[in-house]
Amino acid sequence: MSSDGVNKGRRRLLTGTVSVVGGLGVVGAAVPFLQMWQPSARARAAGAPIEVVIDKLEPGQMLQAEWRGQPIWVVRRTQEMLDALPGLRENLRDPDSDNTEQQPGYAQNEYRSVQPDLLVLIGICTHLGCSPKYVPEVEPQPFDADWKGGFFCPCHNSRFDMAGRVYGGVPAPSNLRVPPYTFVDATRIVVGIGPEGAVS
Predict the structure, then answer these.
(1) Are strands 188-191 and 50-53 parallel, antiparallel or unpaired?
(2) Nearest to 112 by CA among 161, 163, 78, 60
């Protein structure tokens, strides 16, 4: 009888030990597996808002930054560029930016921007993802004899005005996208956060 008691006790001890070790093994295997689904620090940083310093940006100039792996264009428009925008309406596919997915609500206006002189765009053509060229000169171009300044995609000849609105009759189906952004002060903007503070 005493040997049965010893055997049962040993059995319970061994069963308990195996259960604990097995449980630890499952947890040890699950942790790396679950961590694999978490974005890396590098990926989190790539999606984080970025600050762009604009104090040295002269009228007519464009600077580039990168946010979420996409080129961000910041253009300080001249008064001549702004004055040309209303006269282009008949040439554009979506002059009023009715497609609300192309820009945040606060940029759904004639200038497609928070303040008229500063344009912020994602520099990717909405046709096949090429990066258009900035052609600010208001003068005839080989691709448009009546060019008023804007962006030209050399991949398939899509054209966009100085508000990033797409011309009619070109392959690009929609306007260039405006990312969420807000002004920190007169010298800096943050791309990735709108004025209301919502991270996008």
Answers:
(1) antiparallel
(2) 163
Q: What is the CA radius of gyration of the chain?
A: 28
Widest pairwise Cα distance in the chain: 106
The span from the CA of 176 to the CA of 112, in Å, is: 10
For residue 106, the enclosing domain spans 45-191
How is the beta sheet containing 118-122 ordered, strand by strand?
A: 62-67, 70-76, 118-122
Q: Say if residue 101 is in the same domain as residue 186.
A: yes
- pLDDT by residue (tens digit) across 76-99? 999 999 999 999 999 999 999 998
Residue 20 above 90 pLDDT? no
Residue 144 placed within a domain: yes
Q: Average pLDDT over the chain, rounded to whole?
A: 86
